[in-house]
Write a structure and sequence with these properties.
The complex is a heterodimer of chains A (175) and B (114).
Chain A (H helix, E strand, L loop, with lengths): L6 H8 L3 H23 L2 H18 L9 H20 L6 H8 L5 H10 L3 H11 L5 H8 L3 H19 L3 H4 L1
Helix pairs in contact in A: 1-2, 2-3, 2-4, 3-4, 4-8, 6-9, 7-9, 8-9
Chain B lengths: L4 H10 L1 H14 L10 H8 L5 H26 L5 H30 L1
The chains are: A mainly alpha (175), B mainly alpha (114).
Chain lengths: 175, 114
């Protein structure tokens, strides 16, 4: 999903070069937006959260160690920043029409699946997003979320169990 | 424990729970990857602070250094702690300032000549 970013672009962006920073944003925007979307399940919120991620990247770029790969570092920043954003915005985030959409009965199997994921606890959602969007292994997910590998395994197992239980009555529509 | 595909298939034929696990897992892998909205990067670039963090850090350090030197000179000149050591540092600092200022004056007058 994310193309490789040349090392010198990363170094220039880290030193505050705006054009290099723009190139970095163009490379990572799809990843950042999809992480944000799968943690907020709302296009407007996903866009706001992505903007916050970009601002955080700008501020924290000097902390990036250029001897390490950039993407895992960015993925961690994007996931944590989106989760923090969501946590802060939770009480006022949803407009009445968004709540109506959220609480409406899902019409097709995709929506059913989306709703089931949306209802998972936040940390489970983050695990599921990193596993199925980015196809990361448990080790990489653990690094991204800064939790032990065992915890990630437990969260993934429980998330799948919850999803299966929620979707069980609609199994024929999933096939 | 199942060891080959046939056994796995046979098990899936009969076990609804495992079949559902497989279906959910497969559906999760096919969730669509969305395109970000147009102009997202442009809007983000406009919202960035004008000064880059590295430069801001430099200005902060420079300001801190100037304040530190200022406070040290003020402390030396205040005469609150007039021990022999302080008096000697004070004299040397004064000498250094005079020498620097003399050098600067010479350099400035040379510059005006040309």
């Amino acid at each position: 999903m994310t193309p490789d970013i040349p090392k010198d672009t990363l170094l220039r962006a880290r030193m505050g070069d705006r054009e290099a920073f723009r190139t970095v944003l163009e490379s990572v925007q799809k990843l950042a937006y999809n992480i944000a979307y799968r943690l907020t399940w709302n296009p407007a919120d996903a866009e706001d959260a992505t903007q916050e991620v970009f601002l955080r990247l700008f501020r924290n770029f000097p902390q990036y160690d250029p001897s390490q790969p950039f993407l895992p570092w960015f993925r961690r920043l994007a996931t944590n920043c989106t989760l923090n954003w969501k946590e802060k915005r939770r009480p006022t985030s949803e407009l009445p029409e968004q709540i109506a959409v959220r609480d409406a009965a899902p019409v097709d199997s995709s929506e059913r699946l989306h709703q089931a994921i949306r209802e998972l606890p936040q940390e489970y959602q983050a695990c599921v997003t990193l596993k199925y969007l980015e196809d990361l292994g448990v080790g990489e997910i653990a690094q991204t979320l800064q939790v032990p590998v065992g915890t990630v395994k437990t969260w993934l197992f429980r998330a799948r169990e919850i999803l299966v239980q929620k979707l069980k009555p609609h199994v024929e529509t999933l096939l | 424990m199942m060891i080959n595909c046939d056994e796995t298939r046979d098990h899936l034929e009969t076990c609804e729970d495992c079949r559902l696990h497989v279906v959910v897992e497969a559906r999760m892998r096919t969730l669509p990857v969305l395109e970000p909205p147009k102009g997202l990067v442009e809007r983000a670039m406009k919202a960035l602070p004008r000064v880059a963090p590295v430069k801001r850090e430099f200005f902060r350090l420079a300001a801190a250094a100037v304040m530190l030197v200022g406070l040290s000179v003020a402390a030396l000149n205040s005469g609150l702690d007039e021990t022999r050591a302080v008096a000697s540092v004070k004299a040397r600092t004064g000498q250094a300032i005079e020498t620097t200022s003399a050098m600067f004056n010479v350099w400035r007058s040379e510059l005006w000549k040309h």
